[in-house]
Amino acid sequence: MVNPAQPPTSEDTPASEDATAATPSPIPESIAAAPLKTLAIDIGGSGVKLMTLDEAGEPLGDRARLDTPQPATPEAILATIAELAAHQDRFDRVSVGFPGVVQGGVVKTAVNLDESWIGFDLASALETQLAAPVRAANDADIQGLGAIAGQGVELVITLGTGFGSALFIHGHLVPNLELGHHEFRKGETYEEQLGRAALKEIGKKRWNRRLEKAIAALDRLFNYDQLYIGGGETSKINFDLLDRVVIVPNLLGLLGGIRLWNA
Ligand code: BGC
Residues 246, 234: contact at Cβ < 8 Å? Predict the structure, then answer.
């Protein structure tokens, strides 16, 4: 994958070619100095969101959103992204968060989307569609990249359709952590107990009690220095959080995308 943030160096061009190459015309200053714009995309179980960010990761416009199409196949979601991206200004590169394990741009798991995602090369497909370089990662990892301080053991969980998780040690991501599908209590996983379907079924009061138990269980397991809780359902949290536990804005699922390019 080409990283446009890295201009070619003289080492990229063999000396023999240098001698014969025509002198390139100088790049006009206005273009050379143009900051790179990143289109940040967040594919979710209920919504597909995107916004354009400047080089510092600041939003350049409002967040755009469409409901996740059903069935949530790669083709349907790519069409949704195309529709949303058509209304954005120029961008130079793309970051995309996906609700499943992503390795080398390829989707490995997709519990809350259509199973035809498994094995789909998301980064390559989007590069072709959007004609820009793409970096893809797990959605909770991106949320975490936007939230962490880079010190000690930092755990991130996200509460939305699914239960996302990301672990960072001194700012380094531990890849592929999928707490959501790990057993939590009563023979059920964290996602079964705390995902959106559970919240609808048991209501806010019981869901909050479960969440308190999960926060304590995760502390016993990871002894985290800091726990960040993101995702759309954080608005339902109604108990006082312990020190070392903080709710982060859901927008970090888009804003954190800049870090895929700055890492
Ligand atoms: C997926 C995770 C994802 C989370 C939140 C889970 O079902 O397995 O990879 O981060 O949902 O979208």
Answer: no
Q: Number of folded domains in the chain?
A: 2
Mutation test residue for ligand 1: of 142, 167, 179, 191, the one with most atoms within 8 Å of CB = 191
Q: What is the DSSP letter of 46?
A: S
What's the 39 CA to ligand 1 centre distance in angstroms? 22
Q: What pTM did the predictor assign? A: 0.88
Closest approach atom of ligand 1 to CA 112: 7
Taking the chain, what is the end-to-end CA distance rounded to the nearest angstrom? 15
Q: Is the dihedral of CA 210, 215, 221, 227 positive or negative?
A: positive
Residue-wise pLDDT tens digits, 72-109: 999 999 999 999 999 999 999 999 999 999 999 999 99
In what helix (H) or strand (E) does residue 168 lie, and over which residues does it extend? strand 163-169
* Angle at CA of residue 5, ends 87 and 176, nearest 5°: 80
Are 165 and 230 found together in one domain? yes
- CA of residue 45 to ligand 1 center, whole Å: 9
Domain's final residue, options 94, 120, 141: 141
Residue 192 lies in a domain: yes
